[in-house]
C-alpha cells in the first residue's frame, strides 16, 4: 500500500491510512505500507513540521492500493508526473483512493468520468464545475466504484479505510481494527448530518434541540411527527420542512439511525439478546429491527456482534 505525501499535506489525513494499514492491529492484517513523497527532500506539513520518507513518486505504480490524502489549498492541479503515475498504477490493477480533496486529483486523471464520487461537502460546487463528467454525490461518507474510491472530509477517511479493510480482510478483522482505534466499525448516515445548518437561538430552536435530546434519552418509547410537531406548536408540514433543513435527513431516517446506533452499542458492550436490544432501542418488533439492520450494515445483528467481538 502507498500513501502520497506532498508539500503542505495535512498530518491527520496522511496518518489515517498509515494508522489503519501501517500498524499490526490483528493477525492476518500486516500489509507493507509506503509513504511516497511527491517532491524530493523534506516535506513540510500544514502543521509546520516536516516529514522524511525513503519512497518516492516512482514507487507509486508498484503499489496495490494507493491513498491520496486530500490536497493543497488553494487548489492547484496536480503535476503531469503524478497523473502519469496514477494512470500507470490503475493500468496495473491498483485500487486508488481519493480521501477528502484527494477526489479532485483522482478526477483529474479522467478515471472518474461517468462514475460516482464524493468529496467534502464544502467543495462540492467547485468539484462539479471542474469535473462535470463525474457524477458527484456529496451525501455519502464514501463511494466505492470498485478500483476507485472517494471519501468525504477528514474523519470520513476513517470510514472509507475501514470499508477497504472489510473488502480486503473481512468484517471480523476490520472490526478488530475499528476496536483498536476506538472508531465505530460502521457509521450510519452521511455528510448531510454535518453540513452547516446552524440553529438560531430563538425559543423554537432551543425547544427543538431539547425535544430531540429527549427522544434520544427515550428511544424505547413511541415517537411520531405529529406528536413532536404539536409539542413545538408547529404544523406537521412546517415541522417536516424545518427538520430536514436543520438535520439534513427526514425525521424517520434520523430516528432509525439513532435507534440502530443504540442497538449497536448494546450488542457490542452488553450481553443483551438481539431481541432485547431491539426492544430497548424502540423497534416495535425484532423482524423490523433485523430488516433495518441488514439493510444498513449488510449483515444480521448476530453476525455483527460476532464480528465486532471477534468471537
List the helices and strands and how they pair.
Elements: E1 2-5, H1 11-22, E2 34-37, E3 43-44, E4 50-51, E5 55-56, E6 65-69, H2 80-91, E7 95-99, H3 102-108, E8 116-117, H4 124-130, E9 135-136, E10 142-144, E11 148-151, H5 156-169, H6 171-180, H7 203-217, H8 225-231, H9 236-247, H10 251-269, H11 274-280, H12 286-297, H13 301-309
Parallel strand pairs: 1-2, 1-6, 2-5, 6-7, 7-11, 8-9
Antiparallel strand pairs: 3-4, 10-11
Give your account of this protein's structure.
The chain has helices spanning 11-22, 80-91, 102-108, 124-130, 156-169, 171-180, 203-217, 225-231, 236-247, 251-269, 274-280, 286-297, 301-309; strands spanning 2-5, 34-37, 43-44, 50-51, 55-56, 65-69, 95-99, 116-117, 135-136, 142-144, 148-151. By secondary structure, it is of the alpha/beta class. The chain has two domains: 2-180, Class I glutamine amidotransferase (GATase) domain (Rossmann fold, 3-Layer(aba) Sandwich), CATH 3.40.50.880; 197-311, Homeodomain-like (Arc Repressor Mutant, subunit A), CATH 1.10.10.60. Strands 5-2-1-6-7-11-10 form a seven-stranded mixed sheet, sandwiched between helices. It has a two-stranded antiparallel ribbon with strand order 3-4. A two-stranded parallel ribbon has the order 8-9. α2 links the parallel β6 and β7 (95-99). α1 (11-22) packs parallel to α5 (156-169) and α8 crosses α9 (236-247). The longest helix has 19 residues, at 251-269. It starts with a strand and ends with a helix. Residues 197-203 have low confidence and may be disordered. It comes from Mesorhizobium denitrificans. Pfam families: DJ-1_PfpI (PF01965), HTH_18 (PF12833). InterPro entries: Class_I_gatase-like, DJ-1/PfpI, Homeodomain-like_sf, HTH_AraC, HTH_AraC-typ_CS, INH-QAR. Residues 209-307 form the HTH araC/xylS-type domain. This is Helix-turn-helix domain-containing protein.
